[in-house]
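input
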Amino acid sequence: MRFMMLMIPLGYETAAPDVQLDPERVAAMMRYNEALKDAGVLITLDGLHPPSMGARVSFAAGKPIVTDGPFAEAKEVLGGYWMIEVASRAEAIAWARRCPAAPNEIIEIRQVQEMSDFPPNVREAAGFGDLKK
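output
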């Protein structure tokens, strides 16, 4: 099973574009990333620039409207993610619990939808064929 572990650093929604990272925290996180890799569960990972450097495209009016960050209504934003492949939700939670997160950080764990999770008519409608498992 594939899971995304989404890092939600509280306060990141107002971070400046040139936010500075703490080298000690980066080193601790890299040790955690190495543990994921060494265990053979890591698929990919990335950190994300703050929302002040981002944009949102909304479709509420029936056509795309672009809003540059930061986003005043944002309460929580993503700071990064890990994609892991493990045997169960419990194993994904166990890995998240090992993360050297700061007190202001939350990890949300979400299982990735696989095409095999859907009935044949939905898989056919998706038209992905062999592109997705």
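quick obs: The mean pLDDT is 91.
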